[in-house]
Amino acid sequence: MNKDFTIDLLDLVLSLATAVDLVSTVVADHHKRVAYVALSVGQELDWSRDQLEELVLAGCLHDIGALSLKERVSTLDFELANAKNHAELGYRFLSQFPLFKDIADIVRYHHTYWDDGKGAKADGDDVPAASHMIHLADRISVSIDPKRHVLIQAQDIYQKIRENAGRMFVPGYVEAFEKLSAKEYFWMDAASPSIELALRRRITSGSIRLDLDEMGALAEVFMRIVDFKSTFTSTHSSGVAATAEALARIVGFSDLECKYMRIAGLLHDLGKLAVPAEILEKPSALSEEEFSVIRGHTFYTRQVLESMGDLGVITDWAASHHERLDGSGYPSHEEMEELSLGARIISVADVSTALTEDRPYRKGMTKDEALEVLQEMADTSALDGTIVSQLHQNFDVVNDARIAAQKVAAKEYDEMVKSLGLS
Ligand SMILES: [Fe+2]
Ligand SMILES: [Fe+2]
Ligand SMILES: [Fe+2]
Predict the structure, then answer these.
(1) 209 sits in which H/E element
(2) DSSP at 272
(3) Backbone φ and ψ of 392, nearest 5°
């Protein structure tokens, strides 16, 4: 087992962008389009390679703090009210990972108006030039109507942007955009369904090396972005991580394997980025289509983790948490012999956490109730009987670890909700 991870940042942010833009066809490719437009204008202005790379990374992540579908769609209005919340939340998520610090600052101010120069500062802080560039790219992107040919719209979009130079946008950036706007290739690329290829043709990004602790910190950032999408599940991944780690220790995994298991638990529902909060929180029964969207989440967990680089067993464990020993799980319908011990542990951890954790609309099950359900699932060969019986014998240790971890996560969540005035 490796103690270090090599992560390709561009691959990582592109696959995150893909997942978050899957919540609705209305927002299709929005993040990549913003990255592409910002990169193009930046290149027109001869920004440095590092600045361009930051533009692309920030462009791919800029709306990561817009948690619900309703909020995502509202960011597509040219003049939007109350844009600050999602930008501030995005900043808070990203700034918790030291390597994302600069990108976090860019995201924080990506809706700041230039205001004839006053927008160089906000709340006493310097607003990064890249924030103003992302703002311009974002408003260009939302102005493209996907239902009409992009070239018919180019002139009108340019006019609309120019009218707002100075008030909304940095005039020099608008001038650079004017030059681009005369070129069909710019618009064709910007509206293309293969925009990712256009991006990759123009920029590569270095990989970063993370040690195990740094990887754990990155996983926590993703865990918050996923869990905070819904009050219902705001501490779920923390609970699964603690439960899976405790179970792994009991089963006899090494220290290193236990740390891997915790990271897999933090990341297991990463694919829920692609699931609208409205479905996660739907109070009534799910339609067949909505249930299909939910079932897709483990597929995207695998896709995003694979795109990050070689995470070893973490990817397999995290993405297999809904597989069942009898082949009735998803998405691969793997059976007993094919499922690794780690995958079996995380499946038990996921079910047991879901049963015992409190949700806003119901109390978690008691020890006896939860163990009964788990035992039934072991009896029907859905879950691994040995792991379930080990959980049975060590229930209090495992459950206390879960409760402690979820307490920390709940506190973080409450503080965030309070400080941003969200409900
Ligand atoms: Fe935004
Ligand atoms: Fe946006
Ligand atoms: Fe899941």
Answers:
(1) strand 207-211
(2) G
(3) -55, -50
E strand or H helix that includes residue 121? strand 121-122
321 CA distance to ligand 3 middle (Å): 7
Percent of the chain with pLDDT over 90: 82
What are the pLDDT digits (tens) for 11-53?
Answer: 999 999 998 998 888 889 999 999 999 999 999 999 999 999 9
Neighbour-count burial for 208-219, b at 16+ CB within 10 Å, e otherwise: eebebebbbebb
Residue 225's pLDDT band (boundaries 50, 70, 90)?
Answer: very high
- Cis status, amide bond into 331, omega within 30 of 0: yes
- Tell the residue number behind the tokens 């940095």, with chain if given: 170
Q: What is the pLDDT of residue 153?
A: 97
Q: How far is the CA of 183 from the centre of ligand 2 (A)?
A: 23
Class of 4-202 in CATH = mainly alpha
Distances (CA, A) of 16 to 13, 47, 58, 384: 5, 25, 12, 32
Cα(42) to ligand 3 centroid in Å equals 39
How many whole angstroms from 282 Cα to the centroid of ligand 2?
Answer: 25
Confidence (pLDDT) at 45: 98
Instruction: Output the six-digit token pair for 192.
Output: 């293309």
Asked if residue 242 lies in contact with residue 340, where contact means CB atoms within 8 angstroms, the answer is no
Ligand 2 geometric centre to CA of 235 (Å): 27
Domain span(s) for CATH 1.10.3210.10 in the chain: 4-202, 209-419
pLDDT at 423: 62
Query: Span 209-419: which CATH code?
Result: 1.10.3210.10
pLDDT digits (tens, 9 = 90+) for 90-100: 999 999 999 99
DSSP 330: S
Q: Which ligand has the shortest distance to the CA of 142?
A: 2
E strand residue ranges, 259-369 = none
Tell me which ligand sits closest to the C-alpha of residue 294: 3
Q: What is the pLDDT of residues 277-307, one digit of tens each?
A: 889 888 889 999 999 999 999 999 999 999 9
232: CA distance to ligand 3 center in Å? 13
CA of 334 to the centre of ligand 1 (A): 40
User: Do 348 and 247 meet the contact criterion of CB atoms below 8 Å apart?
Assistant: yes
pLDDT of residue 26: 84
